[in-house]
Fold this sequence. Notes:
Elements: H1 2-5, H2 9-15, H3 19-25, H4 38-45, H5 49-60, H6 75-108, H7 114-153, H8 166-189, H9 201-237
Helix pairs in contact: 2-9, 6-7, 6-9, 7-8, 8-9
Amino acid sequence: MSTITQKQVGEFVAEDFRTAAVFTQYGIDFCCRGHRTLEDVCKKNGIETSELVHRLEQVLNTQGNQTIDYKSWPLDLLVDYIEKKHHRFVEEKIPILKQFLDKLCRVHGERHPELFEVNELFTASAGELAQHMKKEELVLFPFVKKLVKAELSNTEVEAPGFGTVKNPIAMMMQEHDNEGVRFRKIAEITDNYTPPADACNTYRVTFAMLQEFEEDLHLHIHLENNILFPEAEKLESRFC
């Protein structure tokens, strides 16, 4: 058991995304804070280590074809997937959620003042994510694609202005952490997206959309933090 408990949470999820559901059930952040070992998260969260290991082994030992093996994908394909699926999802959902949250504050804010804080947090997240994704699309992702192309053609890569891929990656990971903190706060304020008894349909739909947004963000960040970024650093090191 000692070997498995020293494995990082993000590594479990990178190898089999079905384990993400187990970590979520135990309130363990597998994306922004996926660098922690199983032993560390069990101690911090007061979880019996053998119990969590058992739950993970149940998932890992169950055959299933529903898991996408993102780790086997070429990095340029993974970059395109993140941009076209997750970045586009964020861009499409933000204006709708903003409209709904503004309406909820107007209609229900007096009885539920916590909505104003949720709206403020989401608005901050929307602005930061827009800038974050542009930096990835204009700076980091094109360089990763250059690395892939250079390896395939056995050519050299011109040194980027940012020095090494580790520099923008460090910035992106810090920004991921910031979003993780914001959405943990939103989940806390909304009692994990549970609408109140007097909630109208718009209220319920908005909370469901917020939860969907957070879940997509978890997968989005996981793909970058636990798969794309480490593999990009390894790829760059082969040119040194």
